[in-house]
Design brief:
The complex is a heterodimer of chains A (about 475) and B (about 100).
Chain A lengths: L6 E4 L3 H12 L5 E3 L21 H5 L3 H14 L4 E3 L3 E6 L2 E6 L2 E6 L2 E4 L3 E3 L12 E3 H11 L1 E2 L4 E6 L1 H12 L4 E6 L3 H4 L3 H6 L2 H15 L4 E3 L2 E7 L3 E7 L5 E5 L2 E6 L1 E3 L2 H5 L4 E4 L4 E4 L12 E3 L9 H18 L6 H24 L15 E3 L4 E2 H7 L7 H8 L12 H12 L20 H8 L3 H6 L1
Parallel strand pairs in A: 1-2, 1-7, 2-3, 7-21, 9-17, 11-12, 11-17, 12-13
Antiparallel strand pairs in A: 4-5, 5-6, 8-18, 14-15, 15-16, 19-20, 22-23
Helix pairs in contact in A: 1-3, 1-10, 4-5, 5-8, 10-11
Chain B lengths: L10 E2 L7 E6 L2 E6 L4 H6 L6 E2 L6 E2 L12 E4 L4 E3 L10 E3 L6
Parallel strand pairs in B: 2-8
Antiparallel strand pairs in B: 2-3, 4-5, 6-7, 6-8
Classes of the chains: A alpha/beta (about 475), B mainly beta (about 100).
C-alpha cells in the first residue's frame, strides 16, 4: 500500500460518516476503520441482520436522522476503503496499527480524522461491580441492538440526557422501570434556562420523556445521592439518600448508571495531539481549533471524541473537519459552508454549556467514597488504596497508577480514570488539573501478545500475515 | 450455568423469532438466537461471564460497547473473547465459572 495521499478516518459514527461524505464528494477515497460490524457509531448503532424492528421503533424521534445517516453511509460504502470489525490499537509515526478479521495490519496516513466517539461517564458506587449493574449506554444498547432489557426490575440512576431517554425507551418497550433517580436537582436547571432554550426541540424531547414517565406512574426522583448497590452475587436492591435527606431503599435486579458521556481520546494522544485540562468536562481533552485541527500535523478531531457536544453536532463537526482538511491540502473547500457550520456549532455549544450546568456531574461524589469502594473495576483497586498509595511524592495520577495499579487494567482507565483523579485531588487538597491524567498507552484495547509482537516486527509483510 | 445464579439477568422484549443456535456454557448446552451477542446469550441463562481475578464474585459485563473490557470470557479451546462484541456461533464452548465443575 502506498502512503501517498492516504486519508484515514477512524470511526463510522455521525462524525466519521459525514467526513467521508465530504471527501468522497471531492473524488477522494478515504480509508475508514471502524470497530463495529456496521456503521452508525453507538448513537445510531444498527441492529444485527435478521432483526425486524423499524428504525422508528428503535430510535423514536431520532429515526429520520438515523435513517439519513445510514443511507448516507450505504451510498458511500463502495467509494471508500471501509474496514469494519477493525480496532486501531496504536498510532505511531503517522501509522495506525489495526487488528481486524484478517489479523494485524498497519495503515500509514498523511491525514488522520479521529471520530472516536464517547463512552459513558461513570463513577464508583459501592456494589457497582455486581452482575446486573450496567452503564446507561450499555442498557440502551441491550435494548436497541439486542431487543433485551438488562433486568426484570431496572433502576436508572445518574444524570444527563440519556437518563430519561433510556428509562422511557425501556418502559415504552415493555420493561419494568423500578425508578428513575436523578442526582441533579431542578434548582440546577433554573438559572441556565435561557441557555437551555437554545436547545429547542432537544430540550422539549427531554421534558417530554420525563412527563411520559411520570404520567405512566414511574417514580422519578431528583437530587438523590447514591448510597449502595445491594446484593450478594448479583443486584437485589439499591439504597439512596433522597433530596430531603431520608435514606430510601428500592428492590431491583438491575441498575443502569451514568452521568453523561466522556470522549474516547486515547488515539488522539498517541497521534501526538496536545492535551489540555477542560474545566467543564473536568478532564483532559485533545486540543483543536474551531474547525477541528489538532496540534499534531495532519490530524483532525471531530464528534464527541473531541469533546462532548452530541450527535447532531458530531455530524457538523465531521463535515467541518473534512472541509478543513481539504482546505489545508489546497483542494476545493466551501468557505461559506464552513462559516455556516461554525455558526451552528457555536449555538450548540451554548446549549451544551447550559445542559452541563442543568444536569451537573456530581462533583464530590467520587471523592466521598468510603475506603472500601472499588474504584478500578479491572484491578479491584479501592478508594482507600488510592489514598494510601499517595504517601509518596509527587502527587500525580500516573504515580498512583504505578503504586496501586489503578487504571492499569484491561480498560486502560476508561472507567476509573476520572474518579481516581477526583479521589486523589480531594485527598491531597489540590485542584483536579494538578494531579494530571492517566497517559494513553498502546495497546489501547487488549491485544494478544503474539499479535502485538508480530506487529512490532520491522517486517510489515510478516505482521500482516499473522 | 452460574452456580450462584437464579435465572437469567436479561429479559427478551422483542426479536424472538430468530433461528436458534446452540452453544455450550460450562459443558451444558444453551440455546441462543442468531444475532445474539455472546453476552446476551450468557445473560439469558445466568449473571456471570467470568470470576473476578482479584476478589470474590463474578463479573457480567458493564458497558456493552467494547470499552470497559469487563466481559472477556474464556473458551474451552483456550483463549478468550469479548462477549459484548462477539456474536454467537454454532459450536462455541465457553467457561464462565473458572473451570472448576
Amino acid at each position: 500500500m502506498s502512503a501517498a495521499g492516504n486519508i484515514l478516518i477512524i470511526g463510522a459514527g455521525p462524525a466519521g460518516t459525514r467526513a467521508a461524505e465530504v471527501l468522497v464528494g471531492q473524488g477522494l477515497r478515504p480509508i475508514l476503520v471502524d470497530e463495529a460490524p456496521a456503521s452508525g457509531g453507538q448513537v445510531y448503532r444498527r441492529q444485527p441482520p435478521g432483526f425486524l424492528r423499524s428504525t422508528k421503533l428503535r430510535y423514536g424521534f431520532e429515526a429520520s436522522k438515523a435513517d439519513a445517516l445510514h443511507d448516507c453511509f450505504d451510498g458511500l460504502r463502495e467509494r471508500i476503503d471501509y474496514r469494519p470489525d477493525t480496532s486501531v490499537w496504536s498510532i505511531e509515526n503517522k501509522t495506525a496499527f489495526t487488528l481486524g478479521p484478517n489479523g494485524v495490519d498497519r495503515i500509514p496516513y498523511d491525514a488522520l480524522l479521529l471520530c472516536t466517539g464517547a463512552v459513558d461517564r461513570v463513577l464508583p458506587v459501592p456494589g457497582w461491580t455486581l452482575p446486573g449493574v450496567f452503564t446507561m449506554g450499555g442498557a440502551q444498547i441491550a435494548l436497541k441492538a439486542q431487543g433485551c432489557a438488562i433486568g426484570k426490575r431496572v433502576v436508572f440512576m445518574g444524570s444527563g440526557p440519556l437518563l430519561y431517554l433510556v428509562a422511557y425507551q425501556y418502559a415504552h418497550a415493555g420493561a419494568k422501570v423500578a425508578a428513575v433517580l436523578d442526582t441533579a436537582r431542578l434548582s440546577d436547571a433554573l438559572p441556565v434556562l435561557p441557555g437551555l432554550l437554545i436547545g429547542g426541540l432537544t430540550l422539549a424531547k427531554g421534558l417530554w420523556y420525563q412527563n411520559w414517565l411520570r404520567f405512566h406512574g414511574i417514580a422519578v426522583r431528583r437530587g438523590v445521592r447514591p448510597l449502595v448497590i445491594e446484593g450478594d452475587s448479583r443486584v437485589t436492591g439499591f439504597s439512596y439518600r433522597s433530596a430531603g435527606g431520608q435514606e430510601r431503599h428500592i428492590d431491583c435486579d438491575a441498575l443502569a448508571l451514568g452521568w453523561g458521556v466522556k470522549p474516547e481520546c486515547q488515539l488522539a494522544e498517541l497521534a501526538g495531539c496536545d492535551m489540555a485540562f477542560d474545566a467543564m468536562a473536568r478532564q483532559w481533552l485533545p486540543s483543536s481549533d474551531a474547525e477541528g485541527r489538532a496540534s499534531a500535523e495532519g490530524v483532525y478531531l471531530a464528534g464527541d471524541g473531541a469533546g462532548i457536544m452530541g450527535a447532531d453536532a458530531a455530524e457538523y463537526r465531521g463535515e467541518l473537519a473534512a472541509l478543513a482538511l481539504l482546505a489545508d491540502q489546497g483542494k476545493s473547500s466551501d468557505v461559506a459552508r464552513r462559516a455556516h457550520l461554525k455558526h451552528k456549532l457555536s449555538r450548540q455549544m451554548r446549549f451544551r454549556i447550559a445542559l452541563e450546568r442543568a444536569l451537573p456531574y456530581p462533583q464530590g461524589l467520587a471523592a466521598a467514597q468510603p475506603d472500601d469502594t472499588i474504584v478500578c473495576r479491572c484491578e479491584g483497586v479501592t478508594a482507600g488504596d488510592i489514598r494510601l498509595g499517595q504517601s509518596l511524592e509527587p502527587q500525580e495520577i500516573n504515580r498512583a497508577k504505578a503504586f496501586t495499579r489503578v487504571g492499569m487494567g484491561r480498560c486502560q482507565g476508561r472507567m476509573c480514570g476520572i474518579a481516581s483523579a477526583e479521589i486523589l485531588a480531594a485527598h491531597k487538597g489540590v485542584p483536579l488539573a494538578e494531579v494530571g491524567r492517566l497517559r494513553g498507552q498502546a495497546p489501547i484495547k487488549p491485544l494478544n501478545i503474539a499479535i502485538g509482537g508480530a506487529a512490532a516486527d520491522d517486517d510489515p509483510d510478516r505482521a500482516a500475515s499473522i | 450455568m452460574n452456580k450462584k445464579s437464579e435465572g437469567g439477568q436479561f429479559v427478551r422484549l422483542s426479536e424472538t423469532e430468530r433461528p436458534e443456535i446452540t452453544i455450550h456454557v460450562n459443558g451444558e448446552a444453551v440455546t441462543a438466537l442468531a444475532g445474539d451477542t455472546v453476552l446476551t446469550a450468557l445473560m439469558m441463562v445466568g449473571a456471570a461471564v467470568r470470576e473476578f481475578e482479584f476478589g470474590a464474585g463474578a463479573r457480567a459485563g458493564f458497558c456493552l460497547m467494547g470499552a470497559c473490557q469487563d466481559c472477556w470470557v474464556k473458551q474451552e479451546e483456550g483463549g478468550s473473547l469479548r462477549a459484548c462484541s462477539t456474536y454467537v456461533r454454532e459450536g462455541l464452548r465457553l467457561i464462565t465459572d473458572g473451570g472448576e465443575q
